Amino acid sequence: xxxxxxxxxxxxxxxxxxxxxxxxxxxxxxxxxxxxxxxxxxxxxxxxxxxxxxxxxxxxxxxxxxxxxxxxxxxxxxxxxxxxxxxxxxxxxxxxxxxxxxxxxxxxxxxxxxxxxxxxxxxxxxxxxxxxxxxxxxxxxxxxxxxxxxxxxxxxxxxxxxxxxxxxxxxxxxxxxxxxxxxxxxxxxxxxxxxxxxxxxxxxxxxxxxxxxxxxxxxxxxxxxxxxxxxxxxxxxxxxxxxxxxxxxxxxxxxxxxxxxxxxxxxxxxxxxxxxxxxxxxxxxxxxxxxxxxxxxxxxxxxxxxxxxxxxxxxxxxxxxxxxxx
Amino acid sequence: xxxxxxxxxxxxxxxxxxxxxxxxxxxxxxxxxxxxxxxxxxxxxxxxxxxxxxxxxxxxxxxxxxxxxxxxxxxxxxxxxxxxxxxxxxxxxxxxxxxxxxxxxxxxxxxxxxxxxxxxxxxxxxxxxxxxxxxxxxxxxxxxxxxxxxxxxxxxxxxxxxxxxxxxxxxxxxxxxxxxxxxxxxxxxxxxxxxxxxxxxxxxxxxxxxxxxxxxxxxxxxxxxxxxxxxxxxxxxxxxxxxxxxxxxxxxxxxxxxxxxxxxxxxxxxxxxxxxxxxxxxxxxxxxxxxxxxxxxxxxxxxxxxxxxxxxxxxxxxxxxxxxxx
DNA sequence: GGGGCACCTGTTAGCGATACCATGAGCTGG
DNA sequence: CCAGCTCATGGTATCGCTAACAGGTGCCCC
Lengths: 326, 326
Hints:
Two copies of one chain form a homodimer.
Chain A: H1 2-8, H2 12-20, H3 27-40, H4 46-53, E1 58-63, H5 69-84, E2 88-93, H6 99-110, E3 116-120, H7 124-131, E4 139-142, E5 152-155, H8 157-170, E6 177-180, H9 186-201, E7 210-211, H10 216-227, E8 234-237, H11 240-252, E9 262-264, E10 281-283, H12 286-301, E11 309-312, E12 315-317
Parallel strand pairs in A: 1-2, 1-3, 3-4, 4-5, 5-11, 6-7, 6-8, 8-9
Antiparallel strand pairs in A: 10-12
The structure holds a DNA duplex (30 and 30 nucleotides).
């Protein structure tokens, strides 16, 4: 920086100003400095800047399994939004979902002076981890419940599940069975609640939900049980991958989709249009959730208080796995 | 830090030593300092440390689309390995795959003083971007070709494709058609080469490969064309998602899998065992690739020169989409 | 004509850690 | 008994940058 200053015939302070508040420097001086910067290929040292300003331009993301479609897409959305605002994203993934690891993840990021943290861990244990936060660190949650002490961006799972359930009822099905995700996941319980309320609103019987683990494997295993029940004609499955397993189980048991049984998934993974049959599902706009979360975090960093909640509406995508009641 | 020193009755220098080279401090002193650290919940300021040491404990990952299963899994593997070695990972995703964006991604990371960069962009354009690197920055590539000036960790696409092709030939098929990925992707061309060589080694006819874009959609569209050719009895598809589209196209055209046509995919995404029929495919151990890449980067940071190449062997997983020639 | 105000640029003092060298205590051995 | 070594610790300078204030110039307007 000293060299740049010398080459441009100004002081180091002026170089700093050109880079951080260009409007405060006379255009000719600014041009000279910028020329010198290019000439010497000068790059400011971020560590020194962080040391004195206390802000790093880096935000942290705490996340559980970034190979899952949902978290990966959310992360991608965050990263894109961050890039557009000249932020860099550091990630801390967790070996397990519990309070201690979440706290450790946040600490790991904080020790690198991130300006804020986005937690992508839609699990009950996140709530505990978020209740004891280091003071002064802006934190935003993705997909969490209403009981969190921080701002939240999330897809409205309840609405999406209700919509899917109503779609099945509107096709004449007497009631709708549900294969849910693991009970401690916020998305899973939101979908259960939405499904249940839609059934109750129409006065339908509410079958006991079955519980899977998000994998196609669990969908298949539990699907085999459902396939043997003759009065099961409509199933709302909590994600597309489990729905894929259910579809296979139904087929193997000789029950046709959608002629005998209708199936609705959740997520709209890019492949779901190519399932057999193409899957009716609920699309979640993960990218939008990521962007909203980033925006909330920016607000938080700028000093906005309070616990805002940004809901993203999901969308029912009707394909060929649903049909009228046999 | 000053406060910790005072509370422990030592100088700041000794506190620093306790944290960085504990063996150089007498055990009793060390214990007093550690007690003070805990008492005050002291955390070292990484910016100050970076400023003086020049090393940050952060590594950067440049990546294209982290919602794709392969890149996401690789990133996850890198992140896990990094966590175990107390490194933090920053990501720079690219809006497009070309030299300019790759360079910009690396620059963005470098401006945050990362200790090194892993490039996950198995595309020809990466090669150009990697030929003009800032000197002194350790860089490792994932999935790149042999012509790169940096160390590379990769799955042996050539071997995997050859294995898949030989599997089909061994079932009696006269030859094997290929649906490849986009031609500028290194993985895609590696798989084409492996497939071609396996056919040529047995003196079989080599059909013109068809080109998709990794999506189930493209697999479906191109699959419809293949399904109409009666002498197509075996297809090696360059990834599982395209294979899914091919399976649907074949089914819709009335050609049974595997009785009429055999299909092999590539990747072994977690769902491929629940395709219809369950997909024979080539498993890539992305996590291992990530770990190897991280290890190579550590070596590079430690000063090891040269362009090592770490190959991870893929594994053929035989399921029900392949059978003897009709 | 000069007080006052913009506007631009420079000087100085840290931010919080570690590198490097100095210091002093305690021990060893001829 | 002291030169000379090891070991533990401390003092000081420094990394590269920006906040805060100071100073100088030119212009406006009373």
